[in-house]
Specification:
single chain; alpha+beta; Tetrahydropterin Synthase, Chain A; three-stranded antiparallel β-sheet; 9 helices; 57% helix
Length: 360
């Protein structure tokens, strides 16, 4: 037998034992070593040596952050509604020894702890709070899970609620409520728009009425100023021309017919100054007629009682004077008739028979 063969065998055995004694641990990994079934130490990243045949690797852990998504869990709210909630956990192993020896299956333990904690938290809230308080639920879940999983060598970094699914009937009711809220907001906005529109229209009508009133006021002022100036000019013209009583009485008579021109004038009161104006006009034209009356002249030889010589009459003056006299007499008759009518009306009201009307 060749003596080199045992040496070769010994060399192979030494290499094999050396290889089994070397453990290379990757970065962010941890290996738990047991010796004769008892935990000895945890190997960190890098080159490590163990005793072959005595030490063995019991468990390997990844120290990076992990994501665990649980299946939808039915949870009952405070108002007795069943909702399905999905959660997402972000955790990290901080103590490999505790993760291996403090809990049998840390993934299952975390899942069940999340479900029980979630039911306790949601059970104290109604549906409305559950749908609007995700941040509060996440904070409470993280606090409970972090306190419990700390002794397992696991740190829960974040807990997020992925979905909250209420029952189909509740979804329909929520959709109807949302549509009602949107319709309500739309109606409010429409009513607010109409209100603003009416306010603006009212403001415009108000400004228009103010401007029209101001325009009418200015027009009335201008018309009044014009009438005042016209009256002032007439007054100045009358005083400048030194009008006598005869002219004023005649103008007074010309103005009287205009008092009865209205459509609703069924009763006309003749002022007392009317008779005085008629008398003034009558005396005025009577004086003119006396001045124009032909005078008797002396006879031949200078004796009185001779045949009178009548001068040639003026046709224009005699016709105007006669017309004035006729107008004055007609006015006096109208005044007398009016007075008689008034007396008869008063006697009829008092119950006495009216007096007979005399001849003019």
């Amino acid at each position: 037998m060749d003596p080199a063969i045992p040496l070769i065998i010994l060399a192979v055995l030494f290499v094999a034992i050396a290889l089994t004694a070397i453990r290379i641990v990757p970065q962010a990994r941890a290996y738990n070593i047991e010796r004769f079934g008892r935990y000895i130490r945890t190997l960190g990243p890098g080159l490590n040596f163990i005793i072959p045949g005595v030490d063995r690797v019991n468990s390997k852990f990844d120290l990076r952050e992990h994501v665990f998504s649980s299946r939808p869990q039915p949870v009952i709210t405070q108002d007795n509604l069943v909702v399905n909630i999905d959660t997402v956990l972000y955790y990290q192993i901080t103590a490999p020894k505790a993760a291996a020896y403090e809990v049998a299956n840390y993934i299952q333990a975390i899942d069940q702890l999340t479900v029980t904690t979630l039911r306790n938290v949601i059970g104290s809230m109604d549906l409305e709070q559950t749908l609007t308080s995700r941040e509060e639920i996440n904070t409470r879940l993280r606090g409970v899970l972090d306190d419990t999983t700390g002794k397992w060598g696991i740190r829960v970094n974040r807990v997020e609620i992925k979905a909250i699914d209420p029952p189909p009937t509740i979804k329909e009711a929520m959709e109807k409520q949302m549509r009602a809220d949107r319709d309500k907001r739309a109606a409010i906005l429409h009513a607010e728009g109409e209100r603003q529109s009416r306010i603006l229209k009212a403001e415009g009508a108000r400004q228009q009425a103010i401007l029209e009133a101001q325009g009418e006021q200015q027009a009335a002022i201008l018309r009044a100023d014009g009438e005042a100036k016209a009256i002032e000019r007439v007054f100045q013209a009358v005083h400048a021309n030194d009008a006598d009583a005869k002219l004023l009485a005649y103008k007074y008579l010309e103005t009287l017919p205009s008092l009865a021109q209205g459509e609703g004038n069924t009763f006309w009161v003749i002022p007392g100054e009317f008779t005085e104006a008629v008398k003034n006009v009558s005396h005025a034209f009577a004086g003119d007629a006396a001045d124009r009356k032909p005078s008797t002249e002396k006879g031949h030889g200078g004796e009185e009682g001779g045949p009178a010589r009548i001068g040639a009459p003026d046709p224009a003056r005699s016709s105007s004077a006669q017309a004035a006299m006729d107008a004055a007499e007609a006015a006096e008759r109208a005044v007398a008739d009016a007075r008689d009518d008034v007396r008869r009306a008063g006697a009829g009201l008092a119950g006495s028979p009216p007096e007979p009307r005399g001849e003019d």
